[in-house]
Inverse folding.
């Protein structure tokens, strides 16, 4: 194992860590927003089921909540792109 | 030249599309610029045709599309977020919605298959325009001092907490808002485009290798295309409604 590591060029080594960092970074960034969007949509469905006449208002607010929560996941995606492609 | 999306472009076209007209000058035109020009023209033609004089009372065709678009913006964006006095922003919000929609929907149009908003330039410019507009609206309706006071020192918070709240509000209102508005549109479009390209390449490779292998990925490609149509419309809607929320927030401060 150590012999193989010693044979790799330092550049390749760095590229490998970059790929690991990019992949892990996006994966970790998606965890929180995933839970958050689940909570937003779940509660919106509860509200719509309890009061179907307010469904339109709830849906608009739900999309707003999703948009705010999703921003974090998207920033994670941007970090992934920046790390991996640039 | 893969302008017509007849073959797979190389991976670096994801971020840097070569210019094919006036190359090397500031007026260089590439595929993204062509799509934006077409989206601008489509928005202008839609409302130009719908708005010409002596229309029938019962709308049909183009007029029907434009009127239901306007109605949608009024009912589900302006009324829900700003209220009746937000009607003067209707022209801005409607053209914003249709421009973003037309430049997103090219993602799924065969022969183009490239969302123009997966380039940062125009989402960022639109977000900066929105930033200027909501700040100007806030200053005009509350005065510079009142606007800053209501934004940075939200009422109803214990005085000691302002040490914590004011920097957060400063960053979230004046920095994160335009940034996240642009990132949201851009990253959704890049992610959707990558998803479609991945499944298209996979289907083509599996079809070439085994024929039967594409039976799983090709239906997935079709489903993803339908999903991306939904995402294109939804992102245009979210961009518009967040603009309206920001304008409404600076028009009526929280009490």
């Amino acid at each position: 194992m150590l012999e193989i590591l010693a044979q790799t060029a330092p550049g390749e080594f760095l590229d490998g860590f970059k790929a690991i960092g990019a992949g892990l970074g996006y994966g970790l960034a998606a965890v929180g927003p995933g839970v958050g969007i689940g909570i937003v949509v779940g509660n919106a469905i509860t509200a719509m089921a309890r009061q179907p006449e307010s469904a339109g208002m709830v849906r608009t607010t739900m999309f707003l909540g999703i948009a705010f929560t999703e921003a974090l996941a998207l920033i994670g995606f941007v970090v992934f792109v920046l790390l991996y492609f640039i | 030249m893969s302008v017509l999306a007849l073959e797979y472009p190389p991976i670096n076209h994801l971020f840097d599309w070569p210019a094919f007209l006036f190359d090397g000058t500031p007026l260089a035109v590439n595929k993204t610029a062509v799509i934006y020009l077409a989206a601008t023209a489509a928005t202008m033609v839609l409302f130009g045709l719908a708005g010409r004089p002596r229309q029938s009372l019962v709308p049909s065709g183009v007029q029907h599309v434009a009127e239901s678009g306007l109605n949608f913006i009024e009912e589900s964006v302006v009324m829900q977020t700003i209220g009746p006095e937000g009607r003067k922003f209707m022209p801005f919000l409607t053209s914003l919605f249709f421009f973003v929609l037309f430049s997103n929907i090219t993602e799924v149009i065969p022969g183009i298959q490239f969302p123009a908003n997966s380039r940062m330039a125009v989402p960022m410019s639109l977000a900066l325009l929105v930033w200027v507009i909501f700040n100007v609206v806030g200053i005009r309706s509350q005065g510079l001092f009142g606007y800053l006071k209501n934004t940075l020192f939200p009422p109803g918070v214990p005085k000691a907490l302002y040490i914590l709240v004011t920097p957060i509000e400063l960053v979230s209102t004046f920095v994160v808002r335009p940034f996240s508005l642009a990132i949201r549109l851009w990253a959704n479009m890049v992610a959707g485009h990558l998803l479609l390209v991945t499944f298209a390449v996979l289907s083509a490779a599996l079809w070439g290798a085994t024929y039967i292998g594409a039976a799983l990925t090709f239906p997935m490609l079709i489903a993803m295309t339908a999903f991306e149509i939904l995402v294109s419309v939804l992102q245009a809607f979210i961009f518009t409604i967040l603009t309206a929320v920001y304008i409404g927030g600076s028009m009526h401060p929280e009490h």
